[in-house]
Design brief:
Length: 106
């Protein structure tokens, strides 16, 4: 269940990051409420995952996959550019996540 909770935490993390952009400095009510709920959901599900997973593994995967998802969806939703350095950085994060998962014995 820990990996399922972590996956949910990643989804909420991505929603939080994308929602933060939509708040326009927390001047828009609905995007701001969405962002606060998404942040709370991400932290809640991360805390459930960390009951079983090492904090170093769980937090790194949460932030890493959250970052990748945010950049990809940011490109799709907000038309942000994905450059070669970004792609190489994503590859490094993915390799790191795979290595952490192997190192944690799961």
């Amino acid at each position: 269940m820990a990996w399922f909770y972590l996956a949910l935490a990643v989804v909420f993390e991505i929603a939080f990051a994308l929602g933060t952009n939509a708040t326009k400095g927390f001047t828009k009510v609905w995007p701001s409420l969405f962002t606060v709920v998404a942040a709370a959901g991400g932290i809640f599900f991360l805390s459930l995952a960390l009951k079983t997973l090492d904090v170093g593994v769980g937090y790194t995967i949460w932030t890493g996959l959250g970052s990748i998802g945010t950049v990809i969806l940011g490109a799709l939703i907000y038309k942000e550019k994905i450059t070669l350095p970004k792609v190489l950085s994503f590859a490094s994060i993915i390799l790191g996540v795979i290595t952490l998962k192997i190192a944690s014995g799961l």
